[in-house]
Recover the amino acids of this structure.
């Protein structure tokens, strides 16, 4: 067994990540370990997870540890090929090559039960995919709104809250933070912000 697969190694990485984050004064963006703690805390039982922005697939693999099903969307060809090879033998993880604004209208009506979203497919700087829409959050949330009544409960997490300021250089296509809050309230969802993540979820959970 590789040492990277041991509990001791994971604990050492977790501690190192927290120590490095502490040294920055808990600045954003938060490290992956902090973000994943949010995903786990706000997951729903027996849920399908939809992830936008697969990237290297590490968060996908993490979600696969506790989700019934994971559907991850990655438009960048090389990253898609890597993720498809990584998860190709896992029947509970599906990798789709496209942008979320194209996938959601056909995908979301097929989902049922509890549904969770990790929306991280927007452009947020070097190393992230930049499509025709730098930030498809409006389109993603509209598709979610159109289908929420079909699901038992929903939990939505949107990464990179620091970017949701269209007056900042490079983020003019982003909606405001107030847009996200208003959207959640108008749909009867509870909302919160943790570790640079906007969270909106059904009130009954």
């Amino acid at each position: 067994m590789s040492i990277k697969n041991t509990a001791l190694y994971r604990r050492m990485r977790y501690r190192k990540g927290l120590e490095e984050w502490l040294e920055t004064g808990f600045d954003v963006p938060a490290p992956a370990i902090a973000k994943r703690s949010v995903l786990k805390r706000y997951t729903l039982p027996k849920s399908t997870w939809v992830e936008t922005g697969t990237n290297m697939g590490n968060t996908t693999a993490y979600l696969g540890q506790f989700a019934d099903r994971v559907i991850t969307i990655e438009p960048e060809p090389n990253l898609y090929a890597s993720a498809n090879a990584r998860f190709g033998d896992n029947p509970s993880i599906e990798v789709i090559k496209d942008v979320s604004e194209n996938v959601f209208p056909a995908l979301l009506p097929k989902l049922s039960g509890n549904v969770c979203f990790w929306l991280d497919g927007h452009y947020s700087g070097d190393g992230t995919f930049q499509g025709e829409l730098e930030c498809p959050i409006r389109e993603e949330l509209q598709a979610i709104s159109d289908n929420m009544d079909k699901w038992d409960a929903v939990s939505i997490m949107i990464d990179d809250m620091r970017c949701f300021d269209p007056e900042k250089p490079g983020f003019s296509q982003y909606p405001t933070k107030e847009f996200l809050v208003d959207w959640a309230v108008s749909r009867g969802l509870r909302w919160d912000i943790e570790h640079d993540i906007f969270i909106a979820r059904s009130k009954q959970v």
Q: What stands out?
A: The helical segments are 7-23, 32-41, 58-63, 77-87, 100-107, 137-147, 177-186.
